[in-house]
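Quick one before lunch.
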Amino acid sequence: MKSCSNGGMSPSNSTGKSSFSNTAPASFQILAGATRDTTVWLTTHRQADGDGLACEAAFAAALRSQGINFKTINFEAPGTKYQFLFDDTSGQPVPVTIFDPDFAPKKPDLIVVFDTNDMRLLEPLSSWANEHGVPRLIIDHHEELPASIASSLTETWVDKKAASSGEVLLSLLDQLGWTIDSSIATRLYASLVFDTQNFRFIRASANSHTIAARLLPLVKDPERIHEYLLANLTPSKLGFMAQGLSRMRIEAEGRLAVVVLERDIFHRYGADPSDSGDVVDMALNVHSVKIAMLLREEAPGRWKVSLRSKKGFSVLEAAENVFGGGHRNAAGATVTWESLATKTNAAPDPSASNLPVAIEARLKPLLLEEIRRNM
Ligand SMILES: [Mn+2]
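Model of the manganese (II) ion complex:
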């Protein structure tokens, strides 16, 4: 169900068809009424993935076609496998700027946020936008975190049933009446390919395929998109995956997979943090495994938890237990000793000698309970 909410107020749902509520939201007015003086920033969550990045590049192309100024603002350079989205492989190149508040950037009229509603994943940009009174439009398909969108400056255009943010963005472009050209279609198609993992995770809906069929005639070299996003192994990455897989523990009668990866292993193989996603995804290719948990060291004392599950098993609640979020079948969190201790009724296990052990001790019972309940 698509809905557009005016920050803080409950979303107004329409049935089946996407539309904004009667009182047209400010962000929509800014886009529909944009002039040559209008500037829009595009951003997505930290450690951006193929969905958020493809949406940025697609919307940048759309803004360009409308003669609207744009700036793509990220928190790190796009991962190697995503660079094709921004170069001339996919259309006219789209430059990416790394956000730096010290640079005192001229404030935009609107910031469009893709593929997350968790404003913590946009820091320090979200604080900067609050200070400068910049409105934000969230285009997303995740469960909404009430705390993160409760700002009068934030509006949402969300479809929680969509399999990718690209699908949600397309519905907004249609609403705006903007033409979808090859440069836009190629990137939207990439968003679908990435988030559905080649049309495997389609949420039991024909929508992703219907949209793909609409986009395909305009897509530049679709097979290369598959190659960039899904067939991008290098010998060293294969070495990294071999290491990751050799550390995988399969527990609970084959139903739970656990992998713990320290930082040095990424260094050794020159691996991207995002490469670890492939290790945890691989675990779910084991028939008996229902849930996979990956713990990845981001920095000393800070670990990223990635949880994946098969249909019928939810990992969202476990992620929320450590202040994360996501979907039922893919969720995550960034965990420190402090965040682990914040839940008063569930202090870290004092016998845990290190953080990953403590995180595992917190999450494993929740995941095993979820498996038991749904077997
Ligand atoms: Mn997504």
